[in-house]
Each structure stands twice: as C-alpha cells, then as structure tokens.
Specification:
five-stranded antiparallel β-sheet; 41% helix; single chain; 419 residues; alpha/beta; 17% strand; seven-stranded mixed β-sheet
Amino acid sequence: MSAGAAHGRLVALGKPDESMLILVLVAVVVLLLFFLLLRHVVRKRGGWRRFRRSIAREAALTRRAFGEPLRAWRRHRRGVRALARQLGDPRGGLRVRRLLDAAGAALGDVPGAFAYGLRLEPGWAEVQVAARRLPEPPAPWETDDEAGPQSWCLDLDRLEETAALLPEGPPRSGARIRPLPVAVGLAADACVHLDLAAGPRMITVEGDAAARTHLLQALAAQLDRPGSGASVTVTDGVHPHYPAERLDTVLRRLENTPADPTREAVGAATEVVVCAAPSREQARRLGALAASGTVVCLADGPVPGHSWALRVDARGRVTAPELGLHADCAPLGRAVAAAVRADRRRARRAPQRHLRAEPAVEPRAQPQPWAPEHPELTEEPAPTPTGPPPPRTDTGSPLLSEPATARSRSAEASSTGGE
C-alpha cells in the first residue's frame, strides 16, 4: 500500500466546540448546586428517611385532592341508585309504614314511648325509638351493639317467619292512625326514613339556602306520591314553577274548616302544608293547627315554637342531633324524581292491564287525565274507592300490607257508610 493511499484513509478530527464545552460546564455546576441545596434541605428535614416519608405523604395528599371530585361523583351516583331502588319499589312504602306501625304497637304499654325513625337496608331494619328508658324488645325485635342505643332491629332475611310475630293490635287511645314516613337521605348504605306524624308535626328545614330548598322539594314530592297517605298543599315560594296558593289563604281555609271527629276514624289522608319562610303570625297559626293534629307542616327556614329542625349544609349533609339523624341528602332529589317517573309508568300501564283482564261489557266513562304542573312536586292522584275494599288475594308477607290500624279504621268507616 502506498503512503498516499494510507494518508487518504485518515479521519480528520475537529477541535471541540467552545459553546458546547460551556454548556457542559454550566450543567455540571447547576447539578452540583442542586445536590448541595437538596442535601441542605434533607438535613433540615431530619435525614433522607424522613424526607422520603414527607415526600410520599405530600404526593398521597395531592393525589387524594385531585381524585376527590371523581370519588364524590361516584358516591353520589351510588347513593342515587340505592335510594331510587328503595323509593321506586311499589311496596317499599307499605313495608316502611308496616314496620313503624308494628314497632308502635309493641310500644303500646310503654308510657310516652313511640317509634319515629327507620333505617332500612337490604335484609335489615333498625327502628329508632323515643323513650325515657328503652324497654326490652319483644320477639322478633332485637337489640344490636352496632346500632344506636335507642333502637330496635329486625332481620328481614327471615321475613316470612318473623312477620307473623309482629303485633297487629289497634293502637292505644290518642295514637295516630298510621305513620307518615319520608326518606331524608342515605347513611352507610341505609335509607333513613323519618315519621313526620310522630312528633310535633312541625318540621323545619334550615341551613344552606340551596340545599334546604332541594331537600324541602324532595320531601314534598315524596308526600305527593300515590299511596303516601298525605294530601299535600304547596304554598307560594316553595317552587318557582309551581302555581301555588298564598299561605294566608290556606290558613284561612284550614281554620274555617269545622273539625270532623270522624276524620281520623275513617283513615282519611293527612293534611300536609308545605310553606316557605312564614312570618311570626303565620308560624303561630301553623303551630296551633299542628298542635291540634289538623295538619303536618313542612317549613323552609326556622320557625319559632316546638318543632323538629333538619339542618342541611352546603355539601348535602342533613343532621338533627336531638333525633340522632345524620344522613346524606344530596342524592335524594334525583332518586325521588326517578321514583316519580316509575310511578307514572306504572300508572300508564295499569289501565291497559285492567282492560286486558276484564272483558268490556258496557262502556264506562273514563276520568279526565290530570297533568301535573311540575313533575317534582305533584303526581297523578290515586283513585278514591267508593265501596268497601276488596279482600286481599296476595300471599305475600304481612309486612307488604297496610298497617293494621289503617285496615281496622277503614273497616269501621265502611260499616258506618253502609248504615
């Protein structure tokens, strides 16, 4: 090989670029300063182990803070589904009233004791009892260490064998005809019900303005459902899209209505007045009507006098410490709306099933359909029976029937009407 060819194969190496060298030196200095600063911070924090723990704790808190909205939304959706399942059950209201009525009958010999609340979950029921000293529960009721101190429990999985043991005797004199329960929220996967007819019959909703308005409307919509046992009158100011009467007009009509001693004896619907921010004079008149047992009042805002107060915060937590009530009422509005829609679907399908089951012998006049003004506060009225109720043909559990008090009073009313 010639010397010229070997010289042509040599690779020419360039001199290092000064700008690149400066960048490398600057990066090394920055990394060194960062290491020294990190070492100083770590020493102030107590060493590398504590520093790693604090970093992990801060990362967990940050992850939790960014994930909390998603978890809250999932909890809300679960609550809506759970409440909608219980409220949408066509026999759920009968079960709740039957349990409260059975607990009240079991407390008939205890002076001043009454059942006012119910926590219902799949397979389990817990009735809250107001009494100076809670008596021992009769069978099939039992106490539970995990439940509240003033509560009786019932295992609903043994429904067929325990329902027959529940007392069905008539209530003691002066007791109400039947309970008037409403769902107020969800607590640990249990639907919390409150009997509005058990206490002073004056219930106020206080706290955050938006949250208490939603709760009041949800309670009124439940009472206005078919079969609730209530006749609801909504006054102005409760809902902006609901045409309502003035509260003074409603009070004047109720005060001028003569007292009917046979009204409670025939099992008539309980009169419920839903109002917003009554004045002191209006609150006094409402309190007098509630104390006489004429009406049950639901008021938006504080009202002077003897009442049950449901306090709601901005996150939808409803509390009543004197009642032992702590629940999440944020999913209640959507759940009640779903239950009302289910009621409407059943009402539309019921006439079709009736026409298919009965042959048309003669044409009958169909009632005019009544369209509610707002779907959240009203619902189609249940048909009023004109004669004695037909005998029961179902073979279900006694818990899925009207309370014994309502049946006995209805029978008396039928015999009186026949005379």
